[in-house]
Amino acid sequence: xxxxxxxxxxxxxxxxxxxxxxxxxxxxxxxxxxxxxxxxxxxxxxxxxxxxxxxxxxxxxxxxxxxxxxxxxxxxxxxxxxxxxxxxxxxxxxxxxxxxxxxxxxxxxxxxxxxxxxxxxxxxxxxxxxxxxxxxxxxxxxxxxx
Length: 146
What we know:
The protein is an alpha+beta fold. The protein is built from four helices and eight strands. The chain has helices spanning 3-12, 56-69, 82-87, 111-121, and strands at 16-18, 21-24, 52-55, 73-77, 101-106, 126-129, 134-137, 142-145. Strand 6 (126-129) and strand 7 form a beta hairpin. The longest helix is centred in the middle third of the chain and has 14 residues, at 56-69. The N and C termini lie far apart (32 Å).
């Protein structure tokens, strides 16, 4: 699957596509946006926000990393509105507020293996290594430990 395919799939499901981003909410029908991920897995965790925006390149990259890892991956944080980002003490310029970041974790508990896979194969953007999750984004290429 490539960017054009995923954009076409979103448009087929009446999801607004703007550049490389989509915008949707919990009333949007759920469907497999990639082989292993359903659209609603990318919903914002803030129940006060009605809309989620997410970068389709990031979704494709997560699917590729999951393929390489060979085991299911969960998403603990995706899009954050500026007010929600502030409430969770997120960085003021966080890529989450632009729909360009995900905090991810391996469902099998192998955080070390997941982080190793991400660091080895991620082609662009940021990687943040934490004790229980791995942050990935489409911002400037950089690496940090939190």
